[in-house]
Every structure is written in structure tokens, then in C-alpha cells.
Structure prediction request, 158 residues.
Amino acid sequence: MMTFRQLPATNTGDHSMTQILSATLKAELKNSRIAANIARSTAEVFAEERHFSGNVQEFGHTFELAVSEAFTNSVNYRDPSIKDITVTIGFEEESNALTASVTDMNAPFNIHPPEPEITEYPEGGFGLLIIWKLMDEVSCSREGQRNALSMKKFISRP
Prediction:
């Protein structure tokens, strides 16, 4: 579930609008680009609202890349008998950190893959390593038949 805090209602002429309270995003197999864009936008808004002293776009790009890698792993390593897969992407705000979670109905996986000896640079196979390098905290849990990958990035250390 992607949660946004309530923003004040705005009045535009004779229409009153309240911005998003909360939303649930279920990204389908073909929507990894949408998931990545939502991750970047959410992270940038989060950083801006907290007057992040660093590069807001870089903070957003970090989330975009990490969520994109996690989403791609969910799709690429799914059970081949599953034609359509639903990946749920959520965000949780703390005062000094943003956490993204990616859950799917795939088989369990090793969250700590061995560091490969890189003699060539083949496409693929580096998603979890990229996530580990970009994010401050990474964890994975198994909830029933679902994998839940949690990735946290601090805007300032506690």
C-alpha cells in the first residue's frame, strides 16, 4: 500500500479538491516503468517536504532504480507457470527515512546473493547487489506465499 499524508484541501474556483489520502498500487507485469516513476516521484516529494539538504533528484533516482530492480526481479524470477503477476509496491514515511516495499507471490529467494567475480558484464543478475549498494537498509521476509522486500534510505542518519 502506498500511503501519502493528507494535504489540505485546495479551492479552485467553485470546485474544492482534497489531494490523495492513500492509494494502493498494484503494478502488472508490463508496468515496471510506471512503478519506477512512482517511486522516483514519491521519494522526491518526501525529500522536498523534509527540506533535504542533499540532491533531491538523486534521492529520487536512487528509489527509482532500487524499486525498478526489485520489480524486475519479481517479474523475471517468477514461477514460469504464472502468466500474469501482481507486484505490490508500497512506501512508508518516517521523519528521517523513506522505506519502499515490493511484495509478490513468487518462490522464496536468497536476499544475500554471493558477490560475483566480474570478468564480463552480462546483462542481468545484479539487481539485488544494486539494491544493497543504493539503500541503507534492506530486508526480506516471507509472509505466507508472498515475498516482501523492504528497502530503506535515510535523508539523515538518526
About this structure: The mean pLDDT is 71.
